[in-house]
Design goal:
By secondary structure, the protein is α/β, with parallel strands linked by helices. The protein has 3 domains: 13-97, no CATH class; 107-185, GMP Synthetase, Chain A, domain 3 (2-Layer Sandwich); 189-307, no CATH class. 35% of the residues lie in helices and 22% in strands. It has 8 helices and 13 strands. It has helices spanning 13-27, 39-59, 63-74, 87-97, 107-118, 160-171, 205-220, 240-248; strands at residues 122-131, 142-153, 180-185, 187-190, 192-193, 195-199, 238-239, 253-258, 265-266, 273-276, 283-287, 293-296, 303-307. The chain has a 3-stranded mixed beta sheet with strand order 1-2-3. A 3-stranded mixed beta sheet has the order 8-6-13, covered by helices on one side. Strands 7-11-10 form a 3-stranded antiparallel beta sheet.
Amino acid sequence: MPLELPNLDDRSFEDLVSEGIEIIPEVSPDWTDYNATDPGITLIELFAYISDILIYRLNQVADDNVIQFLKLLRGPLWEGPQPGEKLTDLIRKTMQEIRKTDRAVTPADFCELALKAAGNRVSRAHCVPGKNLDLKTKSQKTREGHISVVIVPNEDEKDIEDLKRTVKEYLEPRRLITTQVNVAKAKSIEVDVQLTLHAKDDFPLDQVKEAANLALRRFFDPLLGGFDGQGWPFGRDVYVSDVYKILNRVEGVDFTSKTTDQVELWTKDNDRFIFDNDTKPPALVSIQINSNELVKPLETYNLTVMSA
C-alpha cells in the first residue's frame, strides 16, 4: 500500500473567506456590511486568494526537499536514495527505521546504544546529561551540551580504555550535532555496615552472620541488587533505614540495633555522610552516592551477632 504524503493545510478559498468574516465582529463591531460589494470584503477575498495560493505551494513539497529532510532523520551515515528507489518507498523505510533506536537523543537512547556498541563487554550503562565525567578534575566536570555515558564493564574486561573508545566511536555518528559525548567507567564506593544483629533462639550465630553478609552483598550488587533485583541504581544514596529493612528480613534475625556509639554506615570520604541535624545527637541518614557511582559489595561487613 503506497504511503500518501500528508496534506499540510486543507483549507479552501471559501473556508478562508468565512474565517475572515467571522473575525470582523471581534475586531470591528461597527462593520456590519458583509456583502461582496463592500470594499472590506473585497480585501478579505483578496487575502484569502493569496493564502490559498500559498497553501497550495506548501503542499507541493519538492522531492529534493523531502530527501534532505529524510537525511536529517536518518543521520550522516545514510548514503541517500539508491538508483530506481521510489520516494514513497524511501519515506516508508525511514518511518519504519526511526521507530528503531539508532539515533541517540534521549538518555535511554544513549544507554541502549552503548550496550549495543560493546555487545557483552558492558553489563550496564547509565546516562548523565550536562556532565563530562571522563575528566579527572572535579571543577571541570560540568559542561553545557555534554552528555556522559557511564558503563559497567564485565568482570572479564581488561582493556577499559579500548572499551570506552569503542562505545564512543559507535555513539559519535548517532548523536545530535550539538551534543558532545563522553564515556566513563562507573566508580565503585565502599560502604561498610556497622550494626548488631540479635538472633532468634535455636539459630547459630555464625549462620545468621553469614546470611546477613550474603543479604547485604546481594542488596548492593551492581547487577542484581536494589529492591527490584535489577542492580543497585546509579546515584542512589545508601539509607540507614534500607539497611535495617534488609537485615531484619534475614532468617534468624529477631531485630537489629545500633552498635554502641558507632554510626550505622561507614565510608572513607567524610563528605558523603548525611546527618539529620534536628536530632540530638545528629542521626546518620545516608551515605551520598553520586550519579556516576555504584556501591561496591564487600566480602564481609562489620556486623555483631548476639542472642536476642
